[in-house]
């Protein structure tokens, strides 16, 4: 899945991907890779000329040399550029960069930061009908615009629906018109060479049967997507693409209410109408489907649990179809028409170069083989796991008559049949005369017998006598197998070893020739030894980026499953924290490995504790792993003791281990009341006011008018807050 190699150093975090950092066409600076498929990878890039962020789709190395793929890539640009619609990903530019000596074919598209509808299905499905229709409506609107422009998308599925994040408006856009093709009477295969590329779970029946499609194939796929949104699963499942395709052809899409009883009858009818196996019963195009969808949305807004009239209007008319095959397991693929079955051949996109959108859904190449013996061709296409009997065909027989005009047909015995109405010819006797017996007859007979004997002896020698039967050595180790072959007069040699799930390592899996086959005396038999079960260890991926981890898994024949984020105080954002299963676990080839990615340090929101008790603030902050520091304590006439006077920072976002500083109140400042007894009233007042007290005077009970202090309240030696009032009693 890698983009073309280039000598330019990759940007940080993109090790192994030299395309990152490269300037394509002197204009587009390539950034990080955001998606990849079987035909191309998509990168976030900067248009240096217009100073804007774009998405650049780069064809994989080598595919640009294939004229068919290159033309298809250019067709995607032209097809999508024809559509100016708010729910279609815009195409800005297309080019072919040859600055490094190789063709780098690319498209420049609108960059939509966010996620896909597949992510929404995983998180929310099954979902309420109103939510499902709200997600599908922009998709159908975009398809309607394409159909009005004479284009069929041909690969409608959740992976090709992009949803921008909230910061960018949350808009929904349909992407990847790489399979799009102009509608015509001969619209058949998606790519050249008779190959139909698409995702089997969303293929309309007519695409499987005869490879033809029109706007109604997009309508069918949209109906399947609606079913998946409502139920959380695909309508047809199977162990192989053939089984899924078989069910699309021979089974109706189930009613969503069978899985989710809360789905109203008119929503069921909308799904049935869009996914009818008879394409004449489907809406003619996405514009008609959009009209029906709006009718259903209106009924949902009115809160109708049921609307028999609307449901009856939307429900497709039943047409006679072939009886479904009986049997306990109707998921097993029964025989197609020989030509139809020959369509199905699962191809690894890495080997074929066929398009793959990166999805969890598998991409299937459906190829027609127009050769005699279609059933045998089909069996070879689908592999030994799906045998096709010679009699298993529903194709109409073709009668052939190679006779010349007017010539009677030959009988099985080789004689021509008599024309009807004519009697057999009479043969008249011919007179003969006796001839002399010749000696040549017996001589020729002897020579013929000698020739037959010679031929027989030669056949016996060349066809049998000089050959030895290969002995059975399966399950033996190399030494024992070699000894048995030596005993039979044969030489042994070690062939390429192979993996085996049921033969222990070091034992013989098979031989060439096979056991029981004929081999010349003194010939050589190649031994294929078992390597044991094919297993791969999960590599150590901690500290790698997601792209690097996916590349490492692909290199070890393991598959990437999914990724989820976790906060980490030690692992930088975007790097792998751990894998599931963990590194070192031994797995079968193709097993999935999930990644746990770092979201960086967990942010901690800080509240303002001013005016609150310090002990409460300390307990709350230390519980969140923050450090509490009291920078100073101050007297305060207004803030009680132990209460926070100020805080730094007052609010904001901190991280574990950060410090929050406080200034704490010591309460009002206390001052000791001095001795003022027997002092003159003026002197006592000056003394107390100098210490910050307020002074009042009263006459004592024994007042004599002397003007001296008899006592004070509070009395001498008491600690009272500064600013308190001291009452002097005079004598």
Radius of gyration (Å): 44 Å
Cα shape: elongated
Oligomer: single chain
Derived structural class: alpha+beta
Distance between the termini: 106 Å
| CATH superfamily membership of the domain at 1-111 | Phosphorylase Kinase, domain 1
* CATH architecture annotation of the domain at 1-111: 2-Layer Sandwich
* Record field, number of beta strands: 34
* Unreliable runs: 1-15, 182-197, 320-435
| CATH topology grouping of the domain at 1-111 | Phosphorylase Kinase, domain 1
Largest sheet: 6 strands, antiparallel
Which bin fits the share of residues in helices?
Answer: 25-40%
Number of helices, where a helix is a run of at least 4 consecutive DSSP H or I residues: 17
In spatial order, strands of the major sheet run 1-2-3-4-6-5
Overall mean confidence score, pLDDT: 76
CATH class of the domain at 1-111: Alpha Beta
Beta-strand content estimate: 15-25%
Walk me through the structure.
The chain crosses the membrane at residues 443-464. Residues 406-429 have a biased composition (Low complexity). It comes from Nocardioides zeicaulis. By secondary structure, this protein is of the alpha+beta class. It is 26% helix and 22% strand. It contains 17 helices and 34 strands. The chain is elongated, with a radius of gyration of 44 Å. Mean pLDDT is 76; it is low at 1-15, 182-197 and 320-435.
